[in-house]
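Sequence in, structure out.
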Amino acid sequence: MKEKIAGHLLQIKAVFLRPNEPFIWASGIKSPIYCDNRLILSYPDIRKDIEKGLVALIKEKYPDCEAVFGTSTAGIPHAAIIADILNIPMGYVRSDSKDHGRNNQIEGIAQPGTKVVVIEDLISTAGSALNVCTTLREVGCEVLGIASIFTYDMKKGMDKLNEASIINYSLTDLDTLVNVALHNGIIDENDKAKLLAFRDNPADESWISTTA
């Protein structure tokens, strides 16, 4: 499953590798990888595989799940599809409360004691997913964990999740994606070294000159 999903993401360029011409993140960090999993929605066959994978993951890892909540905005459509397949309630959590109407931050019914799974498209530093988990906990929900499509497995993100006692399970990860890309001739060994060096320390730009 990990290899299949990684192949899908590479095929549609939802994950784009450019180790020799780094992207610039909003934070200013140079990155050899760019991820836009929103593209998945435009490819029905691939979208079906990913939603089936997330449903299977939830059934296996979170069998007590009673509702799913998407992160805003990328997790919302996946949460909606998953909820429909599982026939359970769905909602989403805004990054901040609305400044009008009922000033909601949580959209949907979040009852105290409800066992929920947070749906996220991408885990990097885990900040947005953790904010959703914290918001749901504050209203009394029991957050079983996160189900995501892709994770960088960055130490910073993993440490944050551990500190908050939040589990994340992803359909695929950077190591798998790099190996699939290498196997398919998309990158070479030197590119692989750069990508993994970036994963291990994103703020350290020495990976740019890394050689295999």
